Amino acid sequence: MSKHSQPRQHRRVFLKAAGVSVALPWMESLAEPARDSNRPEMRMVCIASALGMNPEAFFPTSFDANFSLSPTLKSLEPLRNDFTVFSHMDHPSIYTKHGSMNSLLSGVDAKKATAGENVSMDQVAAAHVGYQTRFPSVHVSLGGSQGASWTASGIKVREETDPLDLFRKLFLNDPKAAKEARKLELDQQGSVLDLVRSQAKRLAHDINAPDRRKLEEYLTAIREAEERIQGMQRWQDVPKPHVDFDESVNTHGNMDYPTLSPLMFDLLFLAIQSDSSRVFTAGFGMHNHVIEIDGVNTGYHGLTHHGNLPDRLKQLRIIDAFYIQQMARFMAKLKETKTERGNLLDETMVFFGSGLGDASRHSNRNLPIVLAGGGFQHGKHVNAIQHTGTQTPLNNLFTTMLQNFGVEIDRFNNATGTVSL
Description:
The protein is 35% helix and 10% strand. By secondary structure, it is α/β, with parallel strands linked by helices.
């Protein structure tokens, strides 16, 4: 039997009949022929390290086609044709030291921005998807918040800091009484917003131009809240997908990264597979606790200010390599998961980066950047230095990612163009 005469797998019909929002695994014998005019839904995962990466161990030393992976990136070797490393890329207007973690996904200093000026690229993507999925975006960070996600009205997006809390949010259904209480709450919130919006519009006729701008920012926040309430109402009676996940796992505490980090990425994988969301951020936060990784016995922040002491450098590089190992494991799971047109890694952009280029000097230049998946042509170490001698704005890459996500955008925030991949 030829491929085009095989029975079709009507995935969405099956899900609708089952009453859940979960994608079935792709099965070759039931596959519907792919239509060129119907591109697969793209996903986006942004992974961040709040305290940068040790540059000497992170960046490869050459840009030729057969470049050798650096010690930090070594775990990506089996996937070397699935990712690109960038050197000489940063946010040119950011000089905020550790505060740069708040601007990684926007390229704009949140403390100096007016509402909406520092919208982050993940939230632009989330607005593009809206409530086609239960959650427009999902956010989680170990060891403290990153604070890099900002809505169009300038509101910082909350992150989960415990993977088990994220599991409950994504996959546990509320009891009937809790659902009814939530429905009433959403209805009441919607009524209040309608009242406030109508009053605000009447007020607009009696205020000056600066106050009208403030009012417009306020109304933008109201519109976001309305969209959120309406989206949540649509999903209120749709059961959450059932997934195979062991929630009884025990950890030593919030620094038990060897346990917590795989949980975090496994949940992101399940959320992608079940189409619970298509936009994700995941991070490793800033703190000075001792991370429970073999070979590490000193506080994380202290290690970033290593003073070139060999033992401190060794421990810091163990942590950096661990972060990339977790990314590599996540990428491998995506690549091993077949879809109608290939695999989940081809349909998921996985970004890794930090707002700090070298934490030992509080430098915001030459950021450690890796982009994987998403259907791009990878296997490169790109020298992003421009002909002017300046580094390429990271927002150029974000513009390219947003376009690949399906967003019609010429330039994201302060981008000067796009990046060829």
